[in-house]
From TrEMBL:
It comes from the Bacteria. Residues 233-530 form the CHAD domain. InterPro entries: CHAD_dom, CHAD_dom_sf, CYTH-like_dom_sf, CYTH_domain, YgiF. Pfam families: CHAD, CYTH. CDD domains: CYTH-like_Pase_CHAD. This is CHAD domain-containing protein. Gene3D superfamilies: CHAD domain, Hypothetical Protein Pfu-838710-001. It comes from Methylopila henanensis. Residues 17-218 form the CYTH domain.
């Protein structure tokens, strides 16, 4: 956030200049209220609001983005500042290496030391650096305040901002809190205090990441899980942070969609993100268990549950109910049943929206960001060696254990009762999330080939078990709909609900056979992690 550090002499020295910053999304209309609250808390305004226009540079194939490098030239008034930021994957709380210096103008003119720094980040020789050009611009109106309480010093920037592309503009507002002195705990405490003044949401993206998302047309749209976040050579601690960060970002992106324009795909992907995150807690339990982890897991379960009814009704309406209307002669009572389902769906979406807008949900994301950054688990002497271990051995052991659990849970799959089958599905899901998290850890050609076969059979098993679970949920939903309709004298709707339950039973038999075949194929597939 600060202007301007002197040029650093070499790449190693650049790592000594770090930016520790907490980013929070705010509603633009609350910026004035937040500014007043900062003054009430003793923060001094630093000059008048400034206009900051920043051009971000990258290659045609976005080599800098892939390497976790942000390169920009920012204009403030008549002056220019060039900034390189390295790594520091995070969500909300960003801790990054930063190298800043004055620039002569808007054109990129890298020094030999900067070329060496970028080449090191990209894993190439300076002579092989790709051509770099502006890819997007941010336009920010910034008001800066400085708050000092003893050793605690924080610079607070209230930003009215926009990502500007050649043919589009995406506006947003942020509160950036840069820690200049004191502890991160004090920074999070201040954020919670300000959250009582106006709703503050953990920022899922840095401005550069937001710009790339805009380039991809991904802003404001449901977000699926991206590429595997864990890489070979990471420590176990780094791997968990990468996985958890990826999940929180996915959730926050879908939460933003739900808060502005609710839709079924965003509900589904928000729940997927939370399930992935809960699985990461389970997979990395030997290193992340501490006094706070179980409480966080419980809150994540609550948040996922708050979206569950909306998701179940989406599946029911778009699956079972839609299928009932196919053909030349739809089932009698379909329209009446559909109207009942839509009323329930509206109520479920309203309940989900209330949960997402609650201080409890906002506080959970802030608690999670703090725990990921400075939680007790990161300083536990008893797990220090395991946290520092390379991820390869941990991943292999974890995958082997999860496969063993699936093998045990899935025996005689066709004969299992619905509850036992659901448990098998849960174990399969944990194995699949583990396989997805660790997809880039085992990269030898032989491992890749085995991995593809393993992933194919695991995905098929999960699809069949997921469909069976949807059928069980639809059957229960249809039964209650029939009971309610009959109690209200709506015989046609009750009849249509009963027809859905009957169709579900017929479909389940074929899916059970397919799931059994997928399970056998998975158990025969060669483990790729050994």
């Amino acid at each position: 956030m600060n202007d301007v550090h002197e040029p650093l002499p070499d790449p190693a020295a650049a790592l000594e200049a770090r930016e520790r910053e907490l980013k929070l999304e705010v509603a633009p209309e609350t910026l004035v209220r937040l500014a007043a609250a900062l003054r009430e808390r003793g923060a001094a305004k630093r000059g008048v609001a400034a206009r900051l226009v920043s051009a971000y540079f990258d290659s045609d194939d976005r080599a800098l983005k892939r390497a976790g490098v942000s390169l920009r030239i920012r204009r403030r008034g008549r002056g220019y500042v060039q900034t390189i930021k390295l790594g520091g994957a995070g969500v909300g709380m960003f801790d990054r290496a930063e190298w800043e210096r004055r620039a002569r103008g808007p054109e990129l003119a890298l020094s030999p030391g900067e070329n060496l720094l970028l080449a090191s980040a990209l894993g190439c020789e300076p002579s092989a650096l790709p051509a770099l050009a502006p890819v997007f611009t941010t336009n920010v109106k910034r008001a800066v305040h400085l708050l000092q309480r003893g050793a605690f010093v924080v610079e607070l920037a209230l930003d009215e901002a926009a990502i500007e592309l050649a043919d589009a503009r995406y506006a947003f507002a942020e509160l950036e809190m840069e820690l200049l002195g004191g502890t991160p705990e004090e920074l999070f405490a201040l954020a919670r205090d300000l959250g009582s003044v106006a709703p503050l949401r953990l920022s899922a993206l840095s401005k550069s990441a937001r710009g790339y998302a805009a380039l991809d047309g991904a802003l404001g749209r449901p977000a699926k899980a991206g590429d595997a976040p864990i890489r070979a050579g990471m420590s176990v601690e780094e791997a968990f942070i990468a996985a958890a960060t990826d999940c929180v970002v996915q959730f926050r992106l879908n939460e933003d969609v739900l808060l502005s324009a609710p839709e079924p795909k965003a509900v589904h992907q928000a729940r997927v993100a939370l399930r992935r995150l809960r699985s990461a807690f389970s997979l990395f339990k030997p290193v992340v268990s501490d006094a706070r982890s179980e409480a966080l897991r419980a809150e994540l379960k609550w948040l996922a549950g708050s979206l569950g009814d909306a998701r179940d009704l989406d599946v029911f309406a778009e699956g079972r109910l839609a299928a009932l209307g196919e053909g030349d002669e739809p089932e009698p009572g379909l329209a009446a049943l559909a109207a009942r389902v839509e009323r329930q769906r509206g109520e479920a979406y309203a309940a989900a929206d209330a949960a997402l807008r609650s201080p409890r949900a906002r506080g959970l994301m802030l608690d999670l960001a703090e725990w990921l950054a400075i939680g007790p688990w990161r300083a536990d002497a008893a797990t220090a060696d395991l946290r520092a271990t390379a991820i390869e051995a941990f991943a292999a052991d974890t995958l082997a254990k999860r496969r063993k659990k699936v093998k045990k849970a899935g025996k005689a799959l066709a004969a299992l009762d619905p509850h036992a089958r659901h448990q098998a599905r849960i174990e399969g899901k944990k194995l699949r999330y583990a396989a997805d998290f660790f997809a880039e850890v085992f990269t030898e050609p032989k491992a890749r080939k085995r991995q593809a076969a393993f992933a194919k059979h695991l995905a098929a098993l999960q699809e069949h078990l997921g469909d069976l679970n949807d059928i069980a949920t639809a059957r229960a939903r249809a039964r209650w709909l029939a009971i309610d309709a009959a109690a209200e004298g709506d015989g046609d709707a009750a009849f249509a609900a009963g027809a859905i339950a009957g169709h579900a039973d017929a479909d389940a038999r074929g899916l059970l056979a397919a799931a059994g075949k997928s399970y056998s194929a998975l158990m025969k597939a060669e483990p790729y992690w050994r």
